[in-house]
Specification:
It contains six helices and seven strands, in the order βββαβαβααββαα. With about 190 residues, it is an alpha/beta fold.
């Protein structure tokens, strides 16, 4: 991969009991140079993750970004991302990455939601592409990909993960979201 290839990492941070989560989007080149930021908020336990993340990518206005990494498929307490719709809108290969093994979220969604919200969250969850484990450096990740096959997704993740198991765009986005989240809330970001 060329050193100037760019990926956008999207990660969230929120305090226990918070109504809103901070979302950070960070553009990182393959050579680990940070090349842009965007911030927003989404509802903890809501259903606005797809719309919020799509808006952030649109606001960023970076046609040079080749790949999108998202930390998980439920960025704020079962606020399930419609991964295929998101990837279609942004027009780039999109990789949702989890860092822990899991038996899935279906039973947790059933417990946390009711009525129409439960139905919508379960439909989104069931529509997600298959998840698979990937060994990277000294550990494992769990990947869902849209717009690329497994071999290409594996190559992309490994290229953007020079050390550890967290791809650099997600590592930096997570730090940025945590830093902003630690600040007193303003009316807008």
């Amino acid at each position: 991969m060329k050193s100037g290839a760019r990926a956008l990492g999207l990660a969230t941070s929120y305090a226990p009991g918070a109504a809103l989560a901070t979302v950070a989007g960070v553009v990182v080149r393959a050579d680990r140079v940070v090349d842009g930021f965007v911030f927003g908020e989404l509802t903890v336990g809501g259903s606005d993750s797809t719309a919020t993340l799509t808006t952030l990518v649109d606001r960023l206005e970076r046609p040079d970004v080749q790949y999108v990494f998202i930390a998980g498929i439920a960025p704020a307490q079962y606020n399930i991302l419609a991964l295929s719709a998101f990837a279609e809108h942004v027009g780039r290969p999109t990789l949702a990455i989890a860092f822990e093994e899991s038996n899935g979220l279906e039973s947790a969604i059933r417990s946390a939601r009711d009525g129409h919200q439960r139905t919508m969250a379960l439909e989104r969850y069931r529509s997600l592409p298959e998840r698979w484990p990937l060994e990277v450096n000294d550990g494992h990740l769990f990947i869902r990909a849209v717009g690329v096959d497994r071999d290409e997704a594996t190559r992309i993740v490994r290229e953007f993960t020079p050390t550890g198991t967290r791809p650099e765009p997600l590592r930096v986005a997570r730090q940025a979201a945590r830093a902003v989240n630690a600040q007193p809330r303003n009316k807008t970001l």
